[in-house]
Amino acid sequence: MLSINNLKASVENKEILKGINLEVKKGEVHAIMGPNGSGKSTLASVLAGRSEYEVTDGTVNYLEHNLLDMEPEERAKEGLFLAFQYPVEIPGVNTATFLRTSLNEIREHRGQEPLNGADFLKLMKNKMEVIDIDKSLISRSLNEGFSGGEKKKAEIFQMALLEPTLAVMDETDSGLDIDALKVVAAGVNKLKTENNAVIIITHYERLLNYIVPDFVHIIFDGKIIKTGGKELALTLEEKGYDWITNEHVALSNA
Amino acid sequence: MATPCEADLNNALAGGVEQYFQIANFEIHQDEIFLENSDRYIMLRKSAIAAFETLGIPSRMSEEWKYTNVAKALKRAWVQFPLKTEKLTENDIRSCLIPGLDAHILVFLNGIRVPFTESDSNHEVVRDFGEFISNSNVSPMDNESDAFDALNLAFANDGAIINIPDNSVLDKPLYLLYISSHDDNLFVQNRNVIDIGKNSEATIIEARISLSSNNDFQVFSNNVTEIRCANNSNLDHYQFQIKGQSTTASINKYLVKQEADSTYTSTNINLGGQLVRNNVEVVHEGEGCETNLSGLYHLISDQHLDNHTLIDHKMPNCNSNELYIGILDDHSTGVFNGKVLVRKDAQKTNAFQSNKNILLTDDAKMNAKPQLEIYADDVKCSHGATTGQMNQEALFYLRSRGISKKLAQTMLMEAFMKEVLDKIKIEELKNFLTNILELRLNISH
Fold it and tell me: What 3-state class would DSSP assign to B283?
């Protein structure tokens, strides 16, 4: 589904990603973990198409498309979804209106009829049963005045509505209390099918107690330096990042 | 061929002091120009002409006109009193009405009141213009006056004179419709008076709509509206200008006197006109006044809009709120100059002012100048002005959800403008303007 090959990216001429390689197949859950400043969020931003990042080398193939050539909205229409680390507040844009616009743009791309108001409301009601989210948020301006936890839950709710093929969750767990974390994790687990895939980008292994990854990758200094199964996250929990980064630095210097 | 008085006007507008109005000419032609001949009427007109003669057209050297080159806009040969009157069909007029709005309607074509079957021309609130000028409280003009106010008083020959008696509520909004349609360069001047009696309430909507399509000609309108809100009265005053991006220019002055416990709310939506200057001057004559001024603008092409406001807090315990927001596209230019004067006696004043702009291009330009002058010590005042690009984070967020760049930009612009649109309490007007705005935003980028 997703094939990242030697991806290098810079921001303001500073190289952040220094050759990322990653294969994601449908039905898989990948966790990408790493210390602060290792390039985790940059990877998420590059995949979603944020223009501040300049890709200097490498390829990203997504569902037979050259992902790097696509506009952010085209990526979304092809089923890529980024759950933002810091969802932006947009005063004046009603959440429900936004969701319906977004859904209908994507439906149009899929060759589906746009949903009318009544059908849309019905769908939202269904999805609210899947994701435990405060109904009143939907009638407010997008993310405006939402608490940190509400913003993250709203991201997962959007994900439930848009049914992405590949979801990239950029530190969705950061700053969440345990209840919100459970809601987010339960949402992801319910949405998981054998036809979609999830990339969970996180600093902490805590989320992985609730969402079991098939693969754990450790990113450091712009590269994936170790890949393993879910047990890698447990080792990381015990020994901390120093264990792996020291090993990596020692190897690089050798 | 231009009549002698037109020649005088053009000389006056063209520059050089020696070419300004000749009182002698004015006296010769006064019968042609004016509707009434009372002594007071003539005295007022003469004082205005003398004041204008001294003041002249303001140049950009003048601080108040630093960013607006009105002299340049006036460089045309103007016809002041069109001999042939344009004919408007009832359907032309209907095309300028607000769908679904039940209102009292007064229609002016090129500054002259015209009949319209749906007008309540005999409505008791509307008085005759000439009679008004003769009996008005307008002070004779002097050298301290504003040149365009003086010019207006000198030559205005029609306007809406609205008088809401004490203790009454105007049953439905009054729609003042100013249409311009012409195949000549017209210089139009209306002088309006709105007098809201004690404990009374009214809603007035002022529309300026151009039906001209001939870009070779312009209508320049120089209007003055004097407003008095008596004790405990409430005036909701909407003004909007649409179309005429290259065929109209206007200077609109609103002189508002508020007596104790009155509320004056002005909402100005500006989409039309090549050059527009709005001057709103509010003075509090009594305690407990509230003033709310809002403005919304979307400028394209070479449009220029200058919003000048002055709130004179003379009395204690009064509030004022100002919110002007706008989007500037292409190489349009905007000015916001908001002065709040809090005089020594105006304790417990609350005065808030905000001006927010989005520039869509590198060529668009905004000059924002908030001015707070505070002489009282127990007041709450704040002002802020921001000018920037569209929020790129928000744009990316929407796009990352499959919404095209163009639609996302439109959504963000609508959201930005909503803050003022939501202040429009008349649903029909709000829908009407929202639709025009949406269409315009979709077409223009």
Answer: strand
